[in-house]
Amino acid sequence: MSREWMILVAVWVTAFSLFFFIPRKAFRLAQLAILFKQLITWIIGLVVVELGLIEYPVREFASENRSSFTFEYLVYPIVCGLFNARYPENRSLGFKLLYYCSYCSVITVIELLIEINTDLIRYLHWNWYWTWITLFATFLMSRKFCKWYFSISKIASD
Question: Where would you find the membrane-spanning parts of this chain (predicted)?
Fold first, then answer.
């Protein structure tokens, strides 16, 4: 097994282990965030690959799709579920901004290390800051969607 495939297996194990860090009372919120993030990252990932901005030389389902199933459909959504489940709702705006920035920065640094050291991701016409910006935007979109959805479901159940 090549180094890239071992990394993919380790990423799958790590991603699924993140479920243990989601508080039980916030599990429905995390599920919704995961599903929403899957929708938007799958679409964005496909567009980015088709425009030739990023390439995934080693990937699952290589004959079906040029995007990375692991990153676009598993890792980013599960991290987003954790992000939303542990969101510091009652903290200051500055703390919330730091929360967003820390998640985006950690994921971006990990992706950049993977891009530099493996054949899992190759930036063609892409830079790390585009990753950071798209992560920030999709985390913000998922947070707004979850707040909207649960405010609607609360009204409907009253």
Answer: 6-22, 34-54, 66-85, 97-116, 128-146
pLDDT means per 10 residues, the chain with 158 residues, are: 81 84 91 95 91 90 82 91 94 96 97 92 95 96 95 61
Handedness of CA 27, 28, 29, 32 (dihedral sign): positive
| Contact present, 38 and 73 (Cβ < 8 Å) | yes
Residues 141, 146, 148, 149: is their CA dihedral positive or negative?
Answer: positive
Sketch the domain layout of the chain as residue ranges: 26-150
- Read off the tokens for 68: 């990375």
d(CA 75, CA 45): 13
The C-alpha atoms of residue 145 and residue 108 are separated, in whole angstroms, by 23
Nearest to 58 by CA among 134, 132, 7, 110: 7
Handedness of CA 125, 128, 129, 132 (dihedral sign): positive
Output the pLDDT for position 157: 54
55's enclosing H/E stretch is strand 54-55
The DSSP secondary structure of 17-33, one letter per residue, reads HGGGGS-GGGHHHHHHH
